[in-house]
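Researcher: Next sequence.
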Amino acid sequence: MHAQRTLVDEIVAVVGSELILRSEVEHQAQQMYVQGYVDENNFDAICTVLEDMVFQKMMLSQAQFDSLKVSDDQVNQELDRRVQYFIQQIGGREKLELYLNKSIEQMKDDFRESIKNQLLVNQMQQKITGNLKVTPSEVKDFYKSIPQDSLPYVPAEVQIGQIVMIPPIRDEEKARVKKELNEIRDQILSGSKFSLKARIYSEDPGSAEKGGELGFLRREDLVPDFAGVAFSLKEGEVSEVIETEYGFHIIQLIEKRGEMANFRHILMKPKVSSTDMLKAEMKLDSIYRAIKFNEITFQRAAELYSMDEDTRNNGGLLINYSDGGTRFSIDDLDAYTYQYVSGLKTGEMTKPVAYEMSGGKKAVRVLFLVSRTEPHVASLTTDYQRISNAALAFKQNKAMEDWVFSKQDELYVRINEAFKDCKFKIKWFDKKYQN
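Model: Next structure:
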């Protein structure tokens, strides 16, 4: 049966000396179906995958011709990153090996060549499109070129400002936590299992249930205070108690591979006293009242008083890190923020409310609804950043198409006639492409 399946596979495209098989195209299209992007057996999806694979092969060929290089360290880092992602998704190294019916090292060997090629393709694509930008006039022209009935529909969006007060943690509370963590460290050094102590005592919900294990990470994946100590450890060694923005830790190095390493840690967070939380709330309440009675603007108060470094210099505006803008669709808001701003009108604030910052610190903040847009058809006035991003993507795609066109006399490309009805970006079946 397997031999028969191999026999009916066919070559659907040739790029230079590289072949693209129908099975490869159908496999990638099936992945798009599994991920919910397309309907099953979608011909347009198969066409898109095929053309993308042709582009990839062309860029790989050019990268090799241009002598672009990818180091072994780069390949190993990318392999480690992907393996770690799979381990996290499936729930452990052993489960992944069982699922694949092969060792992690065998899996890396299987993927090494394809990862190297992908990194070369990425370099080539960056060489072609990396320096492209769009001017305001180009954004405007791009917007005008879109037929009115084809303009995207934008869901309801909000802009939100915040002023944050972070109450101090008392020295005696820090001393208490450090003492307790040192006692746990002593027990580990005397023979107790680090992983068991992590499950019992660690306040890091992401790793405690895994015995404190963080998985393979690069130095830049960690906050500097943690990374500096963690990467200086020997395998099996347990660090002294260290402090980071998240609290106090002890760290154990499990294994180091090149520029990546796997660690366990136990995190304990010193607690803010109820008295200090109340003082922060009272201080923020006085700022809230000053804004409410027009003694100061919200933006100016955020710049002067907010203790959140990410938003203070932006007039308090929250940043949507998915696109770098300041607008959020209602669906993008976390439940806690949505709970407080959903009932606000533009220009209104919440009273001071307690919340937990991303690093786990307890704080108090007021939220300010800067603007709210109802669901609407995209326009330059309300959606400039969104349209600018689309214009840049269009310009990059055009640059790629121009690059492909410029290579027509240098690189042999032939696509199977069975795909003649595909709506390709490039007219592959024109005679000029059929070398």
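Model: The first strand starts at residue 11 and ends at 15. The chain has three domains: 9-133+388-433, 154-168+273-377, 171-268.
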